[in-house]
Amino acid sequence: MINRKFVNTTSISRLRALGLCQSATRASRWVAVAVAILLANHSVADTADTLVAAPAKTTTCYLDGLDEQFQCGKISVPENPKQPDGKQIDIHFAILPAIKNTHPDEALLAIAGGPGQSAIENAAGFDRMLTKVRQQRDILLIDQRGTGQSNILSCDDGDLNALNINEDDLDMLAITEECLAGIDADVTQYGSNIALKDFEAVREFLGYTKLHLYGISYGSRMAQLYMRHYPEALATVTLDGVVPMQQSVVAIGSSIERGLNVLWRDCKSNPECQQQFPDLVDEYNKVDQQLADAPISQKVRDPQTDEPSDFLLTRSKFTGAIRMAMYMPNLRALIPHAVNQAAQGNYQPILGIYSLTANSTGIAMGMHASVVCGEDIHRITEQMRKDAKESYISGSMLDGLEKTCEAWPTKQEDDSFSNPIDSDIPTLLLSGELDPATPPNWGALAQEKLTKSKHFIAPYATHGVAYQSCGNDLIAQLVDQGSLKEIDGQCLQKDVRRSFYLNANTVEALPIASTDTDIKTDTTAPANTAEDKE
Amino acid sequence: MKMILAMVRKELIDAARDKRSVMAGLYYAMGTPLIMCGLFMVLIGQLSSPEDLNINIKNANNAPDLVRYLSNNGINHADDEQANKITLTISDDYAANMAKAKPAEVLLVADNSDEKIQKSIRRLERQLQAYSAEMGSLRLIARGINPGITQPIKINVEDKATADSKGGMILGIAIFTMMYSVFISGMNLAIDTSAGERERNSLALLLSHPMSTRQLVLGKIIAVTCFALLGLILILLVSKVAYPFVPWQEIGFTVNISQDFMGLMFLVGIPVALMAATLQLYVSFMAKTFKEAQSYLTMVLFVPLALSMAASYNIAPEILQWLPVSGQQQALMDFIKGREIPMMQLIVSSVTTLIIAVALAAGLEKSLKSEKVVFGL
């Protein structure tokens, strides 16, 4: 699912932009999760801190959303590896101990996305998704430097998500500089390659001889770097929502467009959706154009507090809300209705989606900028820039990022960083057909030189296949068997698609139009069949 | 001292000669863990919900999205005997009511007293509720309301249970069987060496040797205690090997018989074994015949075993912590759950155990001076 973090669309979309983020939650439960996550506080970690004095490597701790006892710990590493005696930072980690530890010298390292999400804060999602792996092996979560408890580089973006803000008025340069001023760290030291050394140091500290990797979204880049630099420490690798090394994450614009087109296609091929929303694409374009001309201002009730508020619906908020909704299969199902309503002047569904997706603080924007500015932005070519400007979403995103990176001190990775990974470690690649961030062809790109690998495309999954399908069973199988031989991915074909919302209430076929006056549907055409072919 | 050792040797040789009856006690020590493990393996399979749960879904066409949601969570439609134990019927007006935001009804039919499917029923209910909650949230979003507001309280739970303590119930039973083996293993020997010896008329002969009654009593006690401890060691070793074979992880915990636990169990078992031996000898001597001794012992042994049994449940009253057998049992359970061992209680109950043993031994010594007892008159 997604994203807990939705990176937001507003201004921040520029800053936070990428939104490759994943959330650790399972779509199906997103209610519980989204709520829990969106409101999550970080109480978790503090427990561990206070206890760490003992010489033991780890101490007992509790993690957000889970009631069990876990083991937490930290190691100190130099912020700048070239100055081993310089400033030290703490890298925190948490172990979800195996239920029955049959392989005490192995663990599965789960790497969070973002860039900028905390793996430890997402422990509940990882735990649920990796239940089977945890039966026999420890699950290791590390807060990558700059995220979570590991010297987080965060920016205060509190009021950037206000309902009445106009993102076009934001000065990204000033915001970035202000953020930078509030950070006490050498931000050039927070790229992926340096962070990888921390991961390896934690592995050695804990004495695991082999790791199985699971990398979601941006985490798949970390996993690939692990394969490049420390292949001897790895047993198997799973890349989910794959970002190939050859790909700049900034080039996500076309993925978003693709995601939208897949959505239009799905609605069109579904009789109920097609009947209910026959002009969906036109309606979307109409709203988009309308907002491009001028934002719409409305008096609304605040979605959360119910205070009377001004809601300034800008193009950025609209496209951003739709984009974030595409991450979650269940929220994605509401998009046609939301677009249809917006075209008729009812912006409540968009407001609801915006409210859910905007106010999340899951991504450490400073760390996000360190990664993107050092590893991705310089890989954007003129042609890509031109293509990006074709669409509003990718254009504004690129724009915001470029301004951010202008102010952000960076150490650019050289060209070899973009080489595909050449490895014979058994590697499982998972892509979601509906993914609005990392489309299946990115997975194929990453697979190029992986000699022992299989790439599966889950037809009904978005971003984070293992959370939404039997992908997690495939991971358990891979970890257990240590090879891909017997994995066929057949189970991913099971039809688990979510039906589209046909009005504000239902996903099931609407009854034949009756004399009921209280239906007040938003429907433009009555459905004339109760049969669902889907 | 020498005399006592000679006595012990004599008893053990005697015991070794009558392999059948004496081994019967030790079979218990070896067999129980194996039988328990076999039982648990079957039970775990029965009690946990299968990964792919098949139920009978009627009118599935009325709610295709719900059916696919369930299927994504491993709950599928099937039409065999097993699946028919749980049926889910989707009402005819499901879609119509849903469209108007009226409650759309589904009917879940199952026998809640059937333990084999209880977990599956809970699971189905949970999934239905999750689906319902999800739709509820989406409806709020469609109306411009953040669904987070429907959860005013975020409940954070910190469970103090450790991986070991979660298996506490199982381990309580395991410890009970170990305590039991202390009593059972030496029982036959105790009867044989007392009532049996008398029946064979060799007791009087023995007493006519130049040795004190005390030496004789001590010799017998030590011999029986040795057997009881042998039984304990056997059951510990067999448990250590057998328990890990049960797939405990499927029900979310692990049962680990650690070496520390084995050591502690053995130490704690020594006073218990002494008491068991004296108690068994005492009762056997009081009985007139071998058979009578067997019946009495079975009844008398019920007391310590009831104590042990009671202590293996958490509902046990506080007082049990201070009594012999149950006190040790509770201390062992605390140890295995990773809690602090209640030293005071352990010491008190162990000392009480020893006092009882000494008192019984004294009584035994005294009674063996009576001809009534020696000749079973």
Write structural notes for this entry.
- The complex is a heterodimer of chains A (534) and B (377).
- Chain A has 534 residues and is an alpha/beta fold.
- Chain A has a single domain, classed as Rossmann fold (3-Layer(aba) Sandwich), CATH 3.40.50.
- In chain A, 38% of the residues lie in helices and 13% in strands.
- Chain A has helices spanning 11-16, 30-38, 43-51, 123-129, 131-134, 172-181, 192-206, 218-229, 253-269, 271-276, 280-293, 315-325, 329-332, 335-343, 348-358, 365-375, 382-390, 392-407, 440-447, 465-468, 471-481, and strands at residues 59-61, 70-78, 88-96, 106-111, 138-142, 210-216, 234-240, 296-301, 308-313, 427-432, 453-458.
- A 9-stranded mixed sheet of chain A has the order 1-2-3-5-4-6-7-10-11, sandwiched between helices. In chain A, strands 8-9 form a two-stranded antiparallel ribbon.
- In chain A, helix 8 (218-229) links the parallel strand 6 (210-216) and strand 7 (234-240).
- In chain A, helix 11 (280-293) crosses helix 14 (335-343).
- Chain B is mainly alpha-helical.
- Chain B has 2 domains: 2-44 and 163-375, no CATH class; 48-150, no CATH class.
- Chain B contains 16 helices and 4 strands.
- In chain B, strand 1 (53-58), helix 3 and strand 2 (75-77) form a beta-alpha-beta unit.
- In chain B, helix 14 packs antiparallel against helix 15.
- Chain B is elongated.
- Classes of the chains: A alpha/beta (534), B mainly alpha (377).
- Chains A and B meet through helix 2, helix 14 and helix 15 of A and helix 3, helix 4 and helix 5 of B.
- Chain B: Residues 30-359 form the ABC-2 type transporter transmembrane domain.
- Chain B: GO terms for molecular function: ABC-type transporter activity.
- Chain B: This is ABC transporter permease.
